[in-house]
Amino acid sequence: MRTEFDHVYLAAHGSTALLVLNHPEVLNAISAKMIGGACEALDGAARPDSGFRALVITGEGRGFCSGANLAEGVAEGADIPASLGATIEKIYHPFLRRLRDLPMPIVTAVNGPAAGFGMSIALMGDIVVAARSAYFLQAFARLGLVPDGGSTWLLPRLIGLARARELSLLAEKLPAEKALEWGLINRVFPDDTLLNEAMKLADKLAQGPTLALAAMRRLYWASPQNTYEQQLDLERRSQQKAGGTKDFVEGVGAFLQKRPPAFEGK
To answer: Which is it for strands 113-115 and 174-175: parallel, antiparallel or unpaired?
Structure first.
C-alpha cells in the first residue's frame, strides 16, 4: 500500500513504514512542499491505529537529498536573503522536531548524495545506513551560507569538533566508507542491497518493545544537555513508565521461559 503526498510517498511494509523523498528530477532537493508532504506522511505513520512501529527514510532514484531546493524558492518569487531565516524556523525546524519526537525508531537509508539539509535529515536516523556509493556533504560554504538543520549540534557530538569543522569549512564530500570509519553512520551496504538491508533492520526494531524504544530515543536526545544527575533522574522516570507496560511483562516472561519475546508495542 502506497500513499502519495507532495514530493513524498509513504508505503506500508508490515509494521514498518517506508517514507520516500520523491522528487528525483532534482535529486530530492528539499522544499516547503516536500516538507509539508513529509509532515503529512509522518502524521499518518504516527497515528496509534496505523500499526507502524518503525520508520525507514530514503530517497527515490539516484540520491537521498541534495539539500535545499533554492531554484524552487527563486521560481516562487521569494526574497531569499530576507526570508531564509524565517523559512528555516517556520518550515525546516518543525520537521526536524517531528523526526526527533517520533514515537518509534527511525532507520535512514542513504542512497547517493546527502548534502546540506539532506545530510541533517539522514543523521536524524537512530540507525544510519548508506550505500557504498553514497556520500555526505556540508555544502553550505559553497553557497556563502552557514550549516543549518542542526548540523553544528549533531556533528561535533558524532565525530568530534575537529572533523565537524573540517567538513563544514572545506565543504568536501565524505564518502560512505569514511563516514563509517569516523563513526558518523552505522553500516555500509552494496548499492543494490541497501534498501533491503535497511528494511531488515527496521523490521527487527518494529518487533521490539516500541514504547521502550521510543523512551530510549528521548533519553539519548536529552543526554547531551543534561548533567549526570539529571540524566539519572530521567532514566529513573523512564524506567518507571517502561516497567508498567505489557511488553515488560512479556519480556520478563520470555526470559524466565527461555523463549523469544513476542512484543506488541504496548
So the answer is: unpaired
Euclidean distance between CA atoms 92 and 232, whole angstroms = 32
Residue intervals of the chain classified under CATH 3.90.226.10 are: 2-206
Q: Which of 209, 203, 205 is nearest to 266 (CA)?
A: 209
Q: Beta strands 16-21 and 54-59: pairing type?
A: parallel
**CATH number listed for the domain at residues 2-206:** 3.90.226.10
Contact 211, 105 (CB under 8 A): no
Q: How open is the CA angle 117-214-10, to the nearest 5 degrees?
A: 55
How far apart are the C-alpha atoms of 4 and 213, rounded to whole Å? 28
Q: Is 51 helix (H, G, I), strand (E, B) or coil?
A: coil
pLDDT digits (tens, 9 = 90+) for 213-263: 999 999 999 999 999 999 999 999 999 999 999 999 999 999 999 999 999
Every domain range in the chain assigned CATH 1.10.12:
210-257
Residue type at 159 in one-letter notation: I
| 72 vs 243: CA distance, rounded Å | 49
Tens of pLDDT along 25-64? 999 999 999 999 999 999 999 998 999 999 999 999 999 9
Give Cβ neighbours of residue 200 (< 8 Å, ≥ 6 apart).
none
Residue 175 CB burial class (10 angstroms; 0-12, 13-18, ≥19): middle
Pairing of strands 174-175, 135-137: antiparallel
**Nearest to residue 30, comparing CAs of 119, 129, 160, 97?**
119
CATH numeric code, 210-257 = 1.10.12
